[in-house]
Write a structure and sequence with these properties.
One of its GO terms (molecular function) is oxidoreductase activity. Keywords: Signal. The chain has 573 residues and is mostly loops. Among the domains are: 4-117, no CATH class; 415-488, no CATH class. Helices cover 12% and strands 6% of the residues. It contains 14 helices and 10 strands. The strands form 5 sheets. A two-stranded antiparallel sheet has the order 1-2. Strands 3-4 form a two-stranded antiparallel sheet. The radius of gyration is 51 Å and the shape is flat.
């Protein structure tokens, strides 16, 4: 009886749980949702459906047709060459890592779905274990899925047609055939190719040659000529190589005929047009961009002339003044002989403009001026208040013409400032667009407007409120959306929120001033004696909220003024 109950439940059929209590390896796979028995079609069936008992000791309990078996149900689809392989070529003991399962005869358990669990690692650990990154299930060769552009060495030009084995040689490693794919030297062409120049030309081969063909020369503009000790600057960069070097196709002689040439010895290649009158140091005056383009000639002592250079003039290029020959005389009696009148006659009197030196000096650029605030106070527009701290360009730079202007700017506020109140403010409060009626030069925010001149004089807290608070509608970006002055309503509810709703409304209007004053929100004018419930006795000492603050249906305190509770029993038990 003890043996029977290992498989049978007393009075019941054989249960799957009894089977799995012994066949733990199957139970483990099913828990991991792996293998044939974890397939939904198989898992839903009882074990005895396929594995029946009591047919004798020689009865084969595990039977299926290997030719018609659907291997997809195991969770591992057979693809490519795997479809043609005999089952036992894969399901063999040498491919099973678990020693206990390996001892079982003709078992189909214990296999891993990783390539290297069945196949030998040809690369001997040199490449990732995921073979399918490069190989397909059809065959190990050719390798169709590998993209050489993903490697550090991208195949270009002739390299794309070279057989892999030309670079990846097949050798013997650890007694087995081995082909190296990583750790190859490819930083320089000479790692694979013989140097035909015998190491006589410095630099990288790619500076002159391409991967399409060694005979294609691209060295002009690419070759780092500074490696030779002769830097190519200016026009030398665009000169054809064979203009200086002897043309030859011999790799051991090409570009090697002027190795010892000094880059400062210009007359070795160029004829001296000055016939040695200024020495052989051509670079003292000339630049390599062009013989006509001269340097600043800092070596020249200008003080021996009638016009010694001072201040900003010492930094000016010679050709800025000496447009013709250096020996051509220049009239330097006035600045305007060389400099254009930037102000276009703004300061002219009787048709004659003053010389630049009246406001400018050669010690600093034209952007600096000797015209001071003190000089400005003598002009037709003395600076006051905030105008003194305003930068000059704010008033004198014409944004449309993008230039400085000084004449005919005007001296009224609206000549520079926009009247933002136009169309909103009554003419009598701002006659002739005169901003000074309300504003001063200290700050726009300092308003000296007398509100008693209006129909609504300011009292109490209203005297402390900014004009913008009532008269301007301001956006979240602090921009004026609209303005109201004469159209601004005077009733309290037009500016203040009516927290009482319709409680104290008369004919639909709540007049706040019946209870409140402008000094504070405290209802100083409210008289409880005029209500239907005058306060007497102890009621005078009770805090308002004891009676008027109640909890609503949500338990939130709310204030109710008209309680309609006039009998003692309404409040007292």
């Amino acid at each position: 009886m003890g043996n029977c109950t290992q498989c049978h439940e007393l009075g019941d059929k054989v249960t799957d749980q009894k089977c799995l209590d012994c066949h733990t390896e199957i139970k483990s796979l099913m828990n991991q949702k792996k293998g044939f028995h974890a397939n939904s079609k198989v898992e839903s069936q009882d074990c005895v459906k396929c594995h029946s008992e009591h047919h004798g000791r020689n009865f084969e309990m595990i039977r299926f047709d290997t030719k018609t078996f659907n291997h997809d149900q195991t969770g591992y689809e057979l693809e490519g060459a795997h479809k043609k392989v005999d089952c036992r070529e894969c399901h063999s003991p040498e491919n099973i890592s678990d020693s206990k399962i390996r001892k079982r005869k003709d078992t189909y358990l214990g296999l891993d779905n990783k390539c290297l669990s069945c196949h030998e690692d040809f690369h001997q650990g040199g490449l990732p274990n995921d073979c399918l990154q490069c190989h397909s299930m059809e065959a190990f060769a050719p390798v169709k899925k590998f993209d050489h552009d993903q490697a550090k060495f991208k195949l270009r030009g002739k390299h794309t047609t070279v057989d892999c084995k030309e670079c990846h040689k097949t050798t013997i490693k650890n007694g087995k055939e081995f082909q190296q794919f990583t750790g190859l030297a490819f930083e320089d062409c000479k790692a694979c190719h013989k140097d035909p120049h015998n190491n006589q030309l410095p630099g990288n081969c790619a500076q002159c040659h391409t991967e399409s063909s060694f005979s294609t020369f691209v060295g002009k503009g690419n070759f780092n000529h500074s490696r030779t000790g002769f830097n190519l600057n200016g026009k030398h960069r665009t000169v054809d190589c064979y203009s200086c070097h002897t043309k030859t196709s011999s790799p051991t002689q090409v570009f090697q005929d002027k190795i010892a040439t000094d880059e400062n010895n210009c007359v070795e290649c160029h004829k001296d047009p000055h016939e040695n009158k200024y020495g052989q140091d051509c670079a003292k005056c000339h630049k390599e961009e062009s013989f006509v383009s001269l340097k600043k000639m800092d070596f020249f002592d200008h003080s021996i002339t009638d016009y010694p250079l001072e201040g900003m003039h010492t930094e000016v290029d010679c050709r800025k003044c000496h447009v013709d020959r250096f020996s051509t005389p220049i009239d330097f009696s006035e600045c305007k002989n060389c400099h254009e009148d930037y102000h276009m006659g703004d300061f002219a009197e009787n048709g004659i403009s003053p010389d630049c030196k009246e406001c400018h000096s050669i010690e600093k650029s034209f952007e600096h001026t000797s015209f001071t605030i003190s000089d400005h106070q003598k002009s037709g527009f003395p600076l006051e208040g905030a105008h003194i701290a305003t930068p000059c360009f704010a008033c004198h730079v014409d944004e449309v013409k993008d230039r400085w202007t000084f004449a005919n700017l005007g001296n009224k506020c609206i000549d520079c400032h926009t009247n933002i109140h136009k169309g909103y403010l009554n003419e009598k409060y701002m006659p002739k667009n005169d901003c000074a009626s309300c504003h001063g030069t200290e700050s726009w925010d300092l308003i000296n407007f007398d509100h008693t001149k209006t129909d609504w004089p300011l009292t109490g807290k209203h005297n402390e409120v900014s004009c913008r608070k009532c008269h301007f509608e301001i956006s979240s970006k602090n921009e004026v959306i609209s303005q109201k002055f004469s159209t601004l309503e005077t009733n309290c509810a037009s500016c203040h929120e009516n927290i009482h709703g319709e409680t104290f409304a008369i004919n639909g209007i709540t007049e706040c001033s019946r209870c409140h004053v402008t000094t504070s929100w405290f209802p100083e004018k409210f008289d409880h004696g005029k209500t239907r419930f005058p306060l007497t006795g102890k009621h005078e000492e009770v805090d308002c909220k004891v009676c008027h603050e109640v909890n609503n249906e949500k338990g939130v305190p709310v204030v109710i003024y008209k309680l309609n509770k006039l009998d003692c029993k309404d409040c007292h038990s």
